[in-house]
Amino acid sequence: MSVFAELVGQSQAVELLERAIAQNRLAPAYLFAGSPGIGKSLAAECFLEVLLKSSRSRIQHRNHPDLLWVEPTYLHQGKRLSAAEAEAAGVKRRTPPMIRLEQIREVSQFLSRPPMEATRSIIVIEQAETMPEAAANALLKTLEEPGRATIILLAPNVESVLPTIVSRCQRIPFVRLAAAAMTQVLLKTGHDAIQPQILALAQGSPGAAIAHQQKLDSIDSDLLRSAMTRPKNLREALTTARAIAKTLDSETQLWLIDYLQQSYWSQVQNERSLQLLEKAKAMLLAYVQPQLVWEVTWMQLLDYRNPV
After folding, report:
1. Distance CA 56, CA 41 (A)
2. CA 293 to CA 203: how far, in whole Å?
3. Which residues of the chain have pLDDT under 70?
4. For tag attachment on the chain, is the N or C end more exposed, with fewer CB atoms within 10 Å?
């Protein structure tokens, strides 16, 4: 059985990687390009299983001495925190995480020593598109002379990465999954009851579908019902607006807007309601006071929403 057997719907990517393994012609750098949640990280883990001659469990726990897996971080009180660490610590995140210059310098330090167990060192950089210019330029120098190493960049598309970096990588394309492949992946992971609105938001990405469903499940059912039901009067509208602003963090409020837009469109296809929600999203992103944003939006939506 192929080491890539778990990777559904990515035949071209699998073919390119299997050919590199079979011919023992590994590129010094790869760019895995495709939307989030469609299998890039899984493909990297499968590839590493062969390159490092290691168990999948060891790779998934990131404890192989010749593997450095780099992910975007937040900076909090002088410490770098991954997204998971920031969430666990309850850190308020006003800006997205990024791959920082210090992390790229650590890549160079990691590659300055020879591999300890495998024949080569492996670097995986998640969300490579989040590198600011200084970090990208520092990585470019490493790509020019990687030594006994393979560097794998994961990004949503080729255009999101500096052309000078792209030119030094072999591109491995990942595509959005068709409905049948999506269903197959979701069934394998035990997610067989995902609603149509979530599948629409996911846009062919099983990982995104699971993440969207988890976000939906995190919202109190009564609050979600209020958001989905036309208020009977202004007081009810303001009460719902206040509950959303007080109960949900900023990230979940933004997600809720996307979900409501998808739901409203599937039910009533009213462009005016979508426009009002899009305006609300823009105001939230501009750090306008959330309760005010939701109160104004709910009052304006009052004439355009239909009962669920």
Report:
1. 12
2. 28
3. 1, 94, 192-193, 266-270, 303-308
4. N
